Amino acid sequence: MFYPLLLQGEKQSQVRKTKTDALDAELIAQFARKEGHQRHPATLDNDSARLREHCRVRFRLVEKASDTKRQLRRDLDVLCPRLSAEFSDIGTPTALAVLMAFAQVTHRFTATVDEIEEALRPFFHASEGRHRKAVALAKHFEDRRAPEALEEPLLWEVKALVHQLELFEEQIRQTEGRIEREMAERESLVTTVPGIGPITAAIVESEFGDAKRFENANQVRAFAGPDPSVYQSGKFEGNHGHISKRGSPRLREGLYRAALSASRSNPACRDLYERLTAKGKAHRLALTAVSAKLLVQSWAVLREGKRFGVPERYRRAEPERTTRAAPSSKKSEESAAT
């Protein structure tokens, strides 16, 4: 077994204008003989294979939901510019409820403040906040820009996309429920790593397979692809630090999504994030480094078969951090009292 990219590179290195199954088979056979030293991938037991497929089903559903959101935002931008900007995530229950209430198949895509407030009632307990949001949305409804000929088909699509999003979100919740039940039965040690929940732990375990097949942390990082690529020629050495993106994209994405939580709750990850941002590194670059740290921590837990333990140097640093934070919190309490 070898990376498809390597085979593609071998094919492109040969000058030929003919493509047949026989020629492709010969190329693969030649490449296999040349690359025969590469190890075979680890096989998974039935439970792990089922867990991995559940995780991949979830990824596919999330991708479909993301595509639907992008199309929905495009339609709304044509109908009412800046309306979609009122919602940080167009797939939230609040946004979908508003769109379902007013995206009717008519030539009238309008709503009064009172009508919007009624649609928002289940999501806002405070009347003041509900009214403020309704006023902002009503102004955008008034600012319709779509040509009359486009309004009806776009409204029909908006309503169809909202139905699709609701379906995808429900399917994602059901799939995550299956994953969480399986992880509860497995009593996963990866969930003991601060910042990693049952979904991310499932992705890590199912994509890793046998953690003991990796000899060191460098191999683990290369497997997932958050390791930096190096560009050097003569005296020139690139310093942009793009990641290699080799290996499992699902493992890489799952850990990146967990990196923000880990940068707050995981002492080693928090220390790494703060050091990088203090040096002026971008937020996304720092989170990528944190995801690589999470990757190695998870691998160590799986390899050793032990619960995660915070290293001693970080346990000693916690009291100092708390002590430094105490005066500011006291000051805020005094200001709140006044």
Model description:
The chain has 338 residues and is mainly α. It folds into 2 domains: 46-182, Helix Hairpins, CATH 1.10.287; 188-230 and 241-313, no CATH class. It has helices at residues 4-12, 21-34, 46-79, 93-102, 113-120, 127-142, 148-186, 198-208, 217-224, 249-265, 267-278, 283-304, 312-337; strands spanning 232-233, 236-237. A hairpin with a 2-residue loop joins strand 1 and strand 2 (236-237). It starts with a helix and ends with a helix.
CATH architecture assignment of the largest domain? Orthogonal Bundle
Which series of helices and strands comes N to C? HHHHHHHHHEEHHHH
The overall strand count is 2
Strand order of the largest sheet: 1-2
The average pLDDT score comes to 80
Kindly name the structural category.
mainly alpha
Distance from N terminus to C terminus (CA atoms, Å) equals: 69 Å
Number of helices: 13
Q: What is the name of the CATH class of the largest domain?
A: Mainly Alpha
> How would you characterize the largest beta sheet?
2 strands, antiparallel
Helix content: 55-70%
Ordered list of secondary-structure elements with their pairings:
Elements: H1 4-12, H2 21-34, H3 46-79, H4 93-102, H5 113-120, H6 127-142, H7 148-186, H8 198-208, H9 217-224, E1 232-233, E2 236-237, H10 249-265, H11 267-278, H12 283-304, H13 312-337
Helix pairs in contact: 3-7, 3-8, 5-6, 7-8, 8-10, 8-12, 9-12, 10-11, 10-12, 11-12
Question: Quick summary of this structure?
Answer:
With 338 residues, this protein is mainly alpha-helical. It has helices at residues 4-12, 21-34, 46-79, 93-102, 113-120, 127-142, 148-186, 198-208, 217-224, 249-265, 267-278, 283-304, 312-337; strands at 232-233, 236-237. The N and C termini lie far apart (69 Å).
